[in-house]
Amino acid sequence: MTISTGTLDRRYSDDSATPTPWAEVMAILDASQVYWVTTVRPDGRPHVTPLIAVRLDDRLYFSTGPEERKAVNLESNGACVLTTGTNSIERGTDVVVEGTADVVSHRALLERVADAYRDKYGQEWSFDVRDGRFVHTAAGGEALVFGITVDTVFAFVKGDAFSQTRWRL
Fold first, then answer.
1. Which pLDDT does position 2 carry in this prediction?
2. Which residue from 37, 102, 106, 157 lies 20 to 30 Å from 54 (Cα-Cα)?
3. From CA 105, how far away is CA 149, in angstroms rounded?
4. Alpha carbons 141 and 19: distance in angstroms, whole number
């Protein structure tokens, strides 16, 4: 996800606002500890839940148990939204990532994602790779790993100059 300039939406931006730099958005995605994923239930209703995630190359990755609601939803409809940011209206930047998630099972990639989890979240989030899934090193539970192919990214800046920047990938 290497992009230089997004499009500032003047309808939702102060007159003095400028597009948020792509590098700033990537730094927010890399530094965030908690994300919210929105998936679509089979009956069309949304489902939202917090989780942890990592960014590698051009995708964002998260894991979940195969029976969890988000995994079941993504099995029938890969459309999802991943969000992160601040819960303040006065400051900060919120990032919204729209895309399609699919199960990752390639061993070498899963090992890279597992390394990224350990690097970002510490040994508590240590996974072994077995049979195309994560297995929690200490607790033993299995998890599917999903990678999001990103379509659109929004950055909502709050503070002195509110703005909304959009990138289509």
1. 56
2. 157
3. 15
4. 43
Domain positions in the chain:
7-168
- Are residues 85 and 93 in contact, defined by beta-carbon separation less than 8 angstroms? yes
pLDDT (tens digit per residue) in 63-94: 999 999 999 999 999 999 999 999 888 999 99
7-168 CATH pick, 3.55.40.20, 2.30.110.10, 2.40.50.100, 3.40.50.300: 2.30.110.10
Asked whether 6 and 166 are in contact (CB, 8 A), the reply is yes
d(CA 19, CA 81): 21
In this structure, what token pair is assigned to residue 167? 């990138």
What is the three-class DSSP state of 44? coil
Strand locations in the chain (E): 7-8, 35-40, 46-51, 54-56, 59-64, 79-84, 92-104, 127-130, 133-136, 142-158, 163-168
